Structures are given as C-alpha cells and as structure tokens.
Inverse folding.
C-alpha cells in the first residue's frame, strides 16, 4: 500500500473525524433509548447495551479529539506519538470497562436467575444498530487502512465491531428466550462478547491492531 499524499491524508483524516462525530451522535441517542427501554422492561442486557453505547461514545470522542488536533497541525506535521499512544490506551481501557461490566452483569443475572422480558422498543433499536453499526465499522476500517494503518481509527473501528456483536448477542438473547424460555442464554452470550473485548483491548493497549488489520487485507 502506497503512502497517501498530504492532500489525501487531510481528506481521509477529515472523513475519520466525521465518522467519529457520527458515532458519538448516534450512540448518545442509542444509549438513552436503550437504557430507558431496559429500565422500563427490567432488561439488564438492554441496559448493558445502553452503557456500551456510552462507552463507545467516549472512545469516539477520544479519537475525534486527536484527529482534530492532527488537522490543526497540518497533514505534513509529525504526529505526537506520546499523545497518540495515550489516546490508544484510553480507548483500550474502554474495552476493559465494557468487558468488566458485561461479565459482572452476566454473573449477577445467572446467580439471581433474572428473567428477561420482551420489549418491542428494545428489539427495534437492536435491529437498527445491526444496520447502522456495520456500515460505520466498515467505513472506519477503510479510512484507517487508507491512512497506512492508522492505529486510532482502527481501534475505533474495532470498538464499533464490538457494538455490532453486542447487538447480535442482546437481540439473540431476547428472541431465544421468547422461543425457548432459557434465560441463561443472554448472560452466556455476554461472556463471549467480554472475551472479545478483552482481546481487542489488549491489542489496542499494545498498538497491535494495525498488524491484525494488515493480516486481514
């Protein structure tokens, strides 16, 4: 992959910033609706999904701030490696927070044998997330790769992919419970998401997401 020109770098960085801004806006609305629907229906998994949206918003804000700083400095300026690494590690911490929350809530749901309920609003929100989030993740990955494997944007894309997986897990838990009555399906699916979040968080912390993306291209 050839290195992008200064003009291309500026254009791609602006696109990455716009994607981060869209992510923040969408997740603020998504999180508010999910937490409201989850509390109203007594759905721990949906409340957790809403908290995940808040965590992803924080990640996108961190990435957006660094991209905005790059634009102010100009495309030919050398990136501040210390600040870039710090931002990447803060993003990694959001992965770990998500994994911890999902694990704790999953264990609590299993121990208390909480029974999820059906919420049309929550199901509609999860379906919408399954449409929007894969598009956002794919767009971020394209920008990150076009910038020569930008660690921050690829880390943000990984966080968005986790949102997709959590959408699948939460929706599957609600639908499978309605079909089988097996309430344990939802927390167990959450544990899978937690393991994935820890894996991605470790790679973000070490700055290894670029290598993985290159391997997949």
């Amino acid at each position: 992959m050839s290195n992008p020109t200064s003009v291309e770098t500026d254009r791609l960085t602006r696109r990455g910033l716009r994607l981060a801004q869209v992510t923040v806006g969408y997740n603020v609305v998504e999180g508010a609706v999910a937490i409201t629907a989850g509390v109203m229906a007594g759905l721990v998994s949906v409340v957790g999904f809403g908290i995940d949206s808040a965590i992803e918003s924080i990640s996108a804000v961190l990435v957006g701030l660094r991209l905005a700083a790059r634009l102010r400095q100009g495309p030919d300026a050398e990136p501040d490696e210390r600040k870039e690494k710090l931002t990447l590690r803060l993003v990694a911490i959001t992965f770990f927070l998500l994994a911890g929350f999902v694990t704790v809530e999953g264990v609590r749901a299993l121990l208390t044998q909480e029974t999820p309920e059906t919420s049309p609003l929550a199901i509609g929100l999860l379906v919408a997330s399954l449409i929007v989030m894969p598009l956002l993740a794919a767009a971020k990955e394209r920008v990150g790769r076009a910038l020569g494997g930008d660690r921050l944007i690829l880390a943000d894309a990984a966080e968005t992919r986790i949102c997709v997986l959590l959408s699948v897990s939460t929706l599957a838990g609600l639908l499978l419970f309605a079909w089988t009555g097996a309430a344990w399906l939802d927390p167990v699916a959450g544990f899978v998401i937690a393991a994935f979040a820890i894996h991605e968080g470790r790679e973000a912390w070490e700055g290894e997401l670029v290598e993985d993306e290159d391997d997949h291209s």
Remarks:
- The two ends are 11 Å apart (CA to CA).
- Confidence is low (pLDDT under 50) at residues 209-217.
- The chain has seven helices and no strands.
- Residues 6-216 form a domain with the Alpha-lytic protease prodomain-like fold (CATH 1.20.1510).
